[in-house]
Amino acid sequence: MSAVGTLKRVFDWKVRGVRWVEIIGLMLVAAMIFSVYLAKAAAAGQGARIASLERQITQNGQRVRLLRAEVARLEQPGRLEALSRGAGLGPVDVHRQATVASLPELAPIPEPEPVTIVSPTIPSAPADAESPAPAEVAQ
Length: 139
Prior knowledge:
By secondary structure, this protein is mainly α. It is 60% helix and 3% strand. A two-stranded antiparallel sheet has the order 1-2.
């Protein structure tokens, strides 16, 4: 038998009146439809996730703009000047200058040596000291 004859027999083989090749083809089409459905469902899920992330990006951008506006308001020179005057601060006198002779007086004070604290020992009380016996406490 030749290959053509064998192939013809496979194509003509029937199961309950339906050719075996048609059954295989129908199963392949069903598998392709199912895989396309799964791919579309996964793409829809990813699309929803992308939309959620885009909304979050937009909200974060709005928050950044609000925070920048708040920083600009808090850094206004007039506001800072009013706060410093309220705290008793003022501008530095222009005529107040240090000379070479006054630099040692302006040098920072060195930090003192660390002090080591030794805890005193507490003498232990004798066992028969003036503590009442358990029977006396209950009465």
